[in-house]
Amino acid sequence: MANSDDHIIRIKGLVNRFGEQTVHDGLDLDVRRGEILGVVGGSGTGKSVLMRSIIGLQTPEAGEVEVFGEPTLGRDETETLDIRRRWGVLFQGGALFSTLTVAENVQVPLREFYPDLDLALLDEIASYKVVMTGLPADAGPKYPAELSGGMRKRAGLARALALDPELLFLDEPTAGLDPIGAAAFDQLTQGLQRTLGLTVFLITHDLDTLYAICDRVAVLADKKVIAVGTIPELLATDHPWIQEYFNGPRGRAAVDAQQKAGDKMDGQARSADADAAAHPTEVARTVEGQRTQGTLADNAARGAPADDPTRTLERTDAARTTGTK
Ligand SMILES: Nc1ncnc2c1ncn2[C@@H]1O[C@H](COP(=O)(O)OP(=O)(O)OP(=O)(O)O)[C@@H](O)[C@H]1O
Predict the structure, then answer these.
(1) For residue range 179-209, what is the model confidence (pLDDT) as tens digits?
(2) Is residue 82 part of a domain?
(3) Order of strands, edge to edge, in the sheet holding 7-18?
(4) Integer CA distances (angstroms), 28 to 45, 50, 165, 170, 218, in order
(5) Best residue for ligand 1 mutational test, from 15, 16, 18 (most atoms within 8 Å of Cβ)
(6) For the segment 227-260, what is each residue's pLDDT rounded down to a tens digit?
(7) Is residue 300 part of a domain?
(8) What CATH number does residue 59 fall under?
(9) Which domain holds residue 17?
């Protein structure tokens, strides 16, 4: 398979079967470096099996998988150690160890890949990752059962970021979150992706997530990736599932919500411009698309941790639409 610097994952001719059931049959997909790729498809189309095939938890019957330019199939764990330490995974539901605290959960991959790290350093890295994902610092010693669903997702994300990965896999990160919590998690994902230069492979049923933060979307159907592109590019195809998914009532509601969010941010940008003109010596604020990130002082004033560079102003648009399974 040709190597390309533009692609962090390359999949060719993937075949996965469970008994008589064929889940993937000649699936191809490339993931570009630095993008957030949304992966969608009806329930049971094999999104999670695809992710598991990439990260080595599922052995496909045939095909080629390359990550960071290295083939991953047919190689044992020690051979892929250098590759595996360069990605992080947030499994569906967070998959935290219930008998470990949040900090201990974050330390699991650190202990696995760097067994010689001393305890003080493990604690320090875990604390940093906890705060980085917007959790309060006192979440570290808590057990998963003591956290809300949204906080558990953030704790799972903190663990996924433990090794400073270049590539992040997120399996339905906003499932089960309320609309405001889901929008905040999207903004956290995008903030981290931009700040840390991550590539994100994001499985979701959440149309708002697709519209809000995904650069491209890959659609799984008929045992393959039937289309991959920006949402306007997908809308230009005539595949019935794609048309129904994006043009159905939930798709239209997601577009409306996106439009409202855009209008709101335009208003904020205009008002920020007026403020800047009126107070030219004040520290500038940055308005990036839908995301407004204040200065550390602004964040502190809003109650966000002052040392958290990724904390973003949470969107409070009321409408949020999750695609049907
Ligand atoms: N270990 C396994 N053994 C047998 N069948 C499996 C196994 N893992 C997955 N499958 C089957 O493969 C198919 C695809 O599963 P997968 O979990 O990838 O779907 P999905 O697209 O992620 O679905 P959802 O959106 O509902 O999470 C399903 O029919 C599932 O039952």
Answers:
(1) 888 898 999 899 989 999 999 999 998 888 9
(2) yes
(3) 21-32, 7-18, 62-67, 70-71
(4) 14, 11, 24, 20, 10
(5) 18
(6) 999 999 998 888 888 988 888 777 667 777 777 7
(7) no
(8) 3.40.50.300
(9) 7-86+165-268
218 and 39 Cβ atoms separated by less than 8 Å: yes
Whether the Cβ atoms of residue 54 and residue 169 lie closer than 8 Å to each other: yes
Is residue 76 one of the residues assigned to a domain?
yes
Question: 42, 63, 52: which is closest to 89 by C-alpha?
Answer: 52
Predicted complex ipTM: 0.97
Total number of domains constituting the chain: 1
Q: CB within 6 Å of ligand 1 — which residues?
A: 18, 23, 41, 43-49, 325
Number of Cβ within a 10 Å radius of residue 93: 15
Prediction pTM value: 0.80
Per 3-state DSSP, the chain is made up of helix, strand and coil in percentages (nearest 5) of: 40, 20, 40
Kindly state the helix (H) or strand (E) to which residue 312 belongs, with its residue range. Answer: none
Of all protein residues, the one whose alpha carbon is nearest to atom 26 of ligand 1 is: 43
